[in-house]
Amino acid sequence: MSTVETARTALDSALAALDAAEIDAVREILSAAGLVGSTVRFVYVGLDEPDKAAVLAHHDGAGLAPERLARILLLDISTGVSRDVLVSLTSHEIRADTVLSGSRGRVPILEEEFAEVGVILAGDDSWCAALRARGVDPAATVCVPLSAGSYGIPGEEGRRIIRVFAFRQDHPEDHPWAHPVDGLCAYVDIIGRELLELIDHRILDVPDEHGNFQDPALAAPGFEDLKPIEITQPDGPSFRVDGDRVEWANWRLQLGFDAREGLILRRLRIRDGERYRPVLYRASIAEMVVPYADPSPTRFWQNYFDTGEYLFGRFTNSLRLGCDCLGEIHYFDAVLSDELGMPRTIPNAICLHEEDYGTLWKHTDLFTGVSEVRRQRRLVISFFTTVGNYDYGFYWYLYLDGTIECEAKLTGVAFTAAYPPEGSAYQSEVAPGLGLPYHQHLFSARLDMMVDGVANAVDEVEVGRVPVGPDNPWGNAFTAKKTRLVSEAEGARDADAANGRVWHIVSTEHTNRMGDPTAYVLHAHQTPTLLADPSSSIAARAAFTTRQLWVTRYARAERYPAGDLVNQHPGGDGLPAYMAANRSLDGEDLVLWHTFGLTHFPRPEDWPVMPVDYAGFKLQPYGFFDRNPVLGVPPSAAAHCCHPQ
User: Fold this and answer.
1) Which phi and psi angles does 251 have, rounded to 5°?
2) Is 397 a catalytic residue?
3) Where does the pLDDT of residue 13 fall: very low under 50, low under 70, confident under 90, or very high at 90 and above?
């Protein structure tokens, strides 16, 4: 093996997700240290990533191999004591062990706690009486445990809180979301195993109509003549896979997976001539929150951080060929830790395939008669996760021309409520007596940039309108206005569709043949940011949702836009804290945090299961190449263009 190949393998190994043997080693090390007992649960186990500079230095032969570290969050379910532990898998030693106070957030919610809430409430007389007052048999209900947020409610100090709604389930195959038992909410201390407060606001009728979308009686006619679509690649796919490394067309990258963030893309490089040039060091969905609009006494607190509070990577689906993915597919399994510290494998967690994407470029020339067309295709890397009622697909697309696109696909069952007889300003009625509350889905993509290296800057570029005058006598002129973001004090930005605002991530060390900085441009979709009042709890806890773009200087510990421990955190951590130092952004190693998403005013067509809705963004080369980089794409063979007559 060559020196270059040795370095490449070491670099890939330093960033690889923990495997089953390493998870076993983590458990054994903690057990030997006396940190694991019968009531201790592994909330999170994941790679504690080495510093970016150390990784790149080692790749260049200028440093030692980074120590391989695992981060573990532990919770003792009998006492509520939680710990943040750092374990060296290189030396098999504990590097740090911190007991968490809980004053600045708590460890995420356990799956075990989901089940335990129902047991606690089933034994509470006041809860059961409130259900019976609504004509509901407690034995015919399911409890939906939800993250509590932070509202300064007396009696909750120092406690691990879960808030709970009830839904009636008419039979084992019945989807309970159709039957919300509304006007009722329980606040539960999950460690003390007690009902702290019962919010019994009003009695509303429980909607009766079922929402069992698999019932053939609900199926609309008209689709019987749909013929199968088969995606075939007779010569096989164009990508190559070696472990977690992928090569496709002009792209190289490494895949990772984490219980908190799910799919991670690492070290995206694109070929230009004989060189592979870096574009992105790391990309992931680092946080997402779903804030609801209903201010009623039982619902004002509804907002869920599906990554920071629930670790949505844990709920990743095993994908199925022909249903979730079409064509020549390569699947990657994900290995995570269960709550007892045992490795568990999610088969087919990540789907990799390529697909046709229409016309890449085309021209029929008036003067020469030349007529040429090339077809675009893209590499698709995706996973799906189900968090309670909603299902989220995250799709990363790499295109032949260097474009990178991220798309979130939202489907599943929208969260339900009883629609009050007097109507509601905060819900849509989608079935008799059944409401879907208004809400938002706001995602944060963490984009650790590396455009031609780590020396980058961000220019905000928008339309410059030119008034009529000596230089614009006919009033037709407009230009591009460019502003360099020089420090973190300027790094929180809003999108502006009226002025076509975009952000160029430029190299401060490399130029193209025209002498301009090589760059990629971030195109944001123009959708609302957080609609809650700036004084609200959710605005403090999810400050990242108040702007479309945040730019920070890279720091190893700054991983999550809402902070490290989100569950019951009062707010102030994450991006506002990261940017308080007001570090320079000009010619530095930069991270972009892009907020994107959608605002959902549900419609009847969203019930009983929601057709996919979409949100996303794209990164596109801008002067990164000296000319159109896909002139070398070969024309399609005639046999693949049309059916013979």
Assistant:
1) -105, 145
2) no
3) confident
pLDDT class of 66 with cuts at 50, 70, 90: very high
Query: Which of helix, strand or coil describes residue 140?
Result: helix
Which amino acid does the sequence have at 336?
L
Report the alpha-carbon distance of residue 171 to residue 181 in Å, rounded.
16
Cα torsion angle, 566, 568, 574, 575, sign = positive
The answer to whether 287 and 392 have CB atoms below 8 angstroms apart is: no
- 223's tokens: 């689709």
Collapsing DSSP states into helix, strand and coil, what is residue 248? strand
Q: What contacts 267, CB < 8 A, 6 or more positions away?
A: 11, 15, 252, 253, 254, 278, 280, 281, 282
Element of type H or E holding 338? none
Residue 400 CA to residue 404 CA, distance in Å, equals 10
Contact between 637 and 418 under an 8 Å Cβ cutoff? The reply is no
Residue 635 DSSP class? P
- pLDDT given at position 303: 97
| Whether residue 390 lies in the annotated active site | yes
Full strand arrangement of the beta sheet holding 93-100: 40-48, 69-76, 82-88, 93-100
Distance CA 40, CA 295 (A): 37
CA dist., res. 316 & res. 332, Å (int): 12
pLDDT tens digit sequence for 422-442: 999 999 999 999 999 999 999
Supply 26's token pair: 């983590």
pLDDT at residue 231, rounded to an integer: 87
Question: Which candidate, 459, 463, 392, 494, places its Cα nearest to that of 622?
Answer: 459
Active-site pick, 281, 304, 390, 395: 390
State the angle between helix axes of 125-132 and 111-122 in degrees (0 to 180), rounded to the nearest 10: 80
180 token code pair: 């919300």
What is the amino acid identity at position 168?
A: R
* pLDDT on residue 9: 54
Of residues 131 and 321, which shows the higher confidence score?
A: 131
Look at the block and give the residue holding tokens 């573990």. 72
Residue 307 DSSP label: T
pLDDT tens profile 147-189: 999 999 999 999 999 999 999 999 999 999 999 999 999 999 9
**Mean pLDDT across the chain:** 95
Cross-strand bridge partners of residue 478:
465
Going by pLDDT thresholds of 50, 70 and 90, the confidence category of residue 402 is very high
What is the signed CA dihedral for 271, 276, 281, 286, rounded to 10 degrees? Answer: 20
Q: Name residue 385's beta-bridge partners.
A: 316, 392
Contacts with 412 (C-beta within 8 Å, 6 or more apart), sequence order? 386, 389, 390, 391, 392, 609, 610
Q: CA–CA separation, 418 vs 179, rounded Å?
A: 8
